[in-house]
């Protein structure tokens, strides 16, 4: 994961884990993709789509491998 996508508010915080960073990176990637597409530059956003896809596959793999008792639920 690129540190360029880590927001200033999360940099240097020990309690931030890789999954949280990937979610933040994915947020930034989606924003970049939307911006390029809105400017009619869809071909320029392909690299960001590939990174986003890789991150989503990684997160899905982690979620599938985690035992049910360790998965966190949102109330």
Describe this structure in words.
This protein is globular. The chain has helices spanning 18-38, 46-65. The two termini are 29 Å apart. The relative contact order is 0.12. The longest helix has 21 residues, at 18-38. With 75 residues, it is mainly α. InterPro entries: SS18_N. This is SS18 like 2. It comes from Nothoprocta perdicaria.
Key terms:
globular, 75 residues, mainly alpha, single chain, 0% strand
The proportion of residues in beta strands is under 5%
Distance between the termini: 29 Å
Count of alpha/pi helices: 2
How many beta strands in the DSSP annotation? 0
Percent in helix: 40-55%
Largest sheet: none
Gross morphology: globular
Radius of gyration: 14 Å
Please write the string of helix (H) and strand (E) elements.
HH
What class, by secondary structure content? mainly alpha
Average residue pLDDT: 80
Low-confidence segments, given as residue ranges, are none
């Amino acid at each position: 994961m690129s540190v360029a996508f880590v927001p200033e508010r999360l940099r240097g915080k020990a309690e931030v884990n890789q999954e949280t960073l990937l979610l933040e990176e994915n947020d930034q990637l989606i924003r970049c993709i939307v911006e390029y597409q809105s400017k009619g530059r869809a071909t320029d956003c392909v690299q960001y789509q590939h990174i986003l896809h890789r991150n989503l596959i990684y997160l899905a793999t982690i979620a599938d491998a985690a035992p049910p008792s360790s998965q966190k639920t949102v109330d």
